[in-house]
Amino acid sequence: MDRLYDLARPLAGLPHASTWLPLAGLLLAAWLANWITRRILLKLVARVALASPLDWDDALMARGVLSRLAHVVPALIIGVGILGIPGLPEVAVSVVHNVALAYIYLTIALSIGNLFNALNDLYESRGDLARRRPVKGYLQVAKLVVFLVAGVLVVATLIDRSPLVLLTGLGAMTAVVLLVFKDTILSLVASIQLSSHDMLRVGDWIEMPGLQADGDVIDIALHTVKVQNWDKTITTIPTHRLISDSFKNWRGMSEAGGRRIKRALLVDQASVRFLSTEERDGLRRIALIDDYLDGKRRELEAYNAELAAGGKDPVNTRRVTNLGTFRAYVAAYLRAHPRVRGDMTLLVRQLDPGATGIPLEVYCFTATTAWGEYEDIQSDIFDHLLAVLPEFGLRLFQQPGGADVAAAVDALSPRKQPQPQPRTHEAPA
Length: 429
What we know:
The structure is a single chain. By secondary structure, the chain is an alpha+beta fold. Helices cover 56% and strands 11% of the residues. It contains 18 helices and eight strands. The chain has helices at 2-8, 17-51, 56-62, 65-69, 72-81, 90-124, 128-132, 136-158, 163-172, 174-180, 182-196, 241-244, 251-256, 277-282, 290-309, 322-336, 371-388, 402-412, and strands spanning 205-208, 213-220, 224-229, 234-238, 248-249, 259-267, 347-350, 358-366. The strands form two sheets. The protein has a five-stranded antiparallel sheet with strand order 4-3-2-1-5, with no helix packed on it. Strands 6-8-7 form a three-stranded antiparallel sheet. A hairpin with a 3-residue loop joins strand 2 (213-220) and strand 3 (224-229). Helix 2 packs antiparallel against helix 5 (72-81), helix 3 (56-62) crosses helix 6 (90-124) and helix 6 runs antiparallel to helix 8. The model is unreliable at 1-5 (pLDDT under 50).
């Protein structure tokens, strides 16, 4: 210290030296405190957090909570030390002190915001609970409150007025505040409803055609919900729209473990007919419909015998149709399929005939909800049904294409007549 005083003694006679020297010392102390805090203390804390088996300290360091809070140290030294510097104008001291104090408020608010982000990271690491009950929206509301309080304190400090004065003014501007924060209030209410009723989770597949959203929910925040569509684009939906508008959530399908197949084969009506006894016996080579054919034979024989005993006209007798037999085969095939859920609804039904034939609809559920596997199973089923359909004497209905029209025109066109050969006249002998 004596050495420092000896070095500073020649400067003591300079004008304003009693002011500039303490001010330079204050700035040097603030810089030194900042260097020690950031270069030594923070690195030491980072090493301790890295070696610790706990998760919360890693989250705090990753979000920069302590590194942001370290800015308070030099600001605090300047804000307090400036009050002890002699010779400075009172206005300058007040301005520096207020700016340093406002910076401390802002830094603490930003640090608390980072703390909320770290808490959200820790909560989301809990897996299924975080997907079922996201808290990101609530934390954003808390951050908004913290920033509002910090904003009031910063403005009040800079203008050197009591925060109560600003709060009184804000109370008189309640209508304006409600108008400005209308979306925030709506989003907060929507977030509470979505969470309390378990209407939406991260990872859910939702459809909202009005907003061009069809994909997985990747983020649920206070104001917005992000949906990654199947083409990898991102649709951002205002949170309150999920309450005011309707959307489809496919989570029930995923939890049930089965995905629905609902598709129809269009059968040509002209190919539907009764099966002869020979054709019916020939279909016995298909193992899946043996029981159906035997049961139908007994049922029809009993019915027809009763008609004959009653003296009814033979036109009233019942016979087996190729379409009914095919429908029974499709149902038996689906029940025997290893990738079709037998404990869920399984139907093969006729829909109303129309100009495009008779729709024979297959309604069942696959044993998986994975998109790729589902499409493979569905394609395999209809590949087989399309290939086996002619075995029952049925045809698919199909609109005529260009080749069909060309073949029909060619068949109807008159054949070309051979050209007559010119006569040759022999010369007289």
